[in-house]
Write a structure and sequence with these properties.
Length: 251
């Protein structure tokens, strides 16, 4: 696999790197899509009608059980070579920020540490009323369970339709995009804002922007390098090209 000298030098010399990942990275691990759970009993539901605060207020039991099914489906998959290559890249760069739109926790499982989850994490739970993460609660058989502090229902800690992205994570993502020397957009369509705007923030502040995606996106014509294909194949070889003294590609 060949890479341009400009790309290799840009990454080798970068002291700060920001990476934005989307659903394509997780799809390579076989993570079920948003609508894959719409089978059997769930075939009469639209995913968009379950992933809203209004749906939870109307029928909290159904929403909780649908997310419980999605959570169980995500437990069956493993990080792929793309996830592991990004964890290795973090170990090689002085300042590294991984910004993800995925909720499956695969980046952390692969070893990434500085992760900003813009859409939350399906394996975390929070209080619907107080919007605070809850790690433990009393199992009474009630569905959903109740917050041990206030008694309100618990919900998945994910961003639903109609909700704002978490302000702290978004602010840190913007800062990382504006201060990095290299920015990667990986496995994302680049059309959902405000997350899609991060790559353009990086461009405006002089970062070298790299896109890795099987298909062209609106960002493609603006990126400094466009690598067409799955990140699980491209990233391990890119790391080896940049640091040839390293071990063989991550697999």
């Amino acid at each position: 696999m060949e890479f341009s000298r400009r790309l290799i030098e840009a990454l080798r010399n970068a002291r700060s790197v920001a990476v934005m990942t989307g659903a394509g990275v997780s799809a390579e691990s076989g993570v079920p899509t948003f609508r894959d759970a719409q089978t059997g009993l769930w075939s009469t539901f639209r995913a968009e009608d379950l992933a809203t605060p209004e749906a939870f207020r109307r029928d909290p039991k159904t929403v909780w059980e649908w997310y419980a099914l999605r959570r169980e489906m995500m437990k069956t998959v493993e990080p792929n070579p793309g996830h592991r290559a990004l964890a290795e890249l973090e170990r090689r760069v002085a300042r590294f920020t991984l910004i993800t739109q995925n909720i499956d926790n695969l980046h952390r499982r692969a070893g990434s540490r500085n992760v900003l989850e813009l859409h939350g994490n399906i394996f975390r739970t929070k209080c619907f009323a107080e919007d605070t993460v809850v790690d433990e609660w009393l199992e009474t058989g009630e569905v959903p369970p109740r917050c041990p502090k206030c008694g309100s229902y618990l919900r998945p800690d994910v961003v639903w339709f109609g909700e704002m992205l978490p302000s702290r994570e978004m602010a840190e993502a913007v800062k990382a995009s504006q201060t990095c020397e290299a920015f990667f957009s990986i496995g994302t369509s680049g059309i959902v804002y405000p997350a899609a705007g991060l790559a353009y923030e990086a461009i405006r502040h002089g970062s070298f922007v790299v896109e890795i995606n099987p298909d062209a996106t609106p960002l493609s014509v603006h990126a400094g390098a466009v690598l067409t294909g799955p990140s699980g194949e491209i990233l391990p070889h890119l790391l080896t090209a940049v640091w040839p003294e390293a071990d063989s590609p991550v697999d």
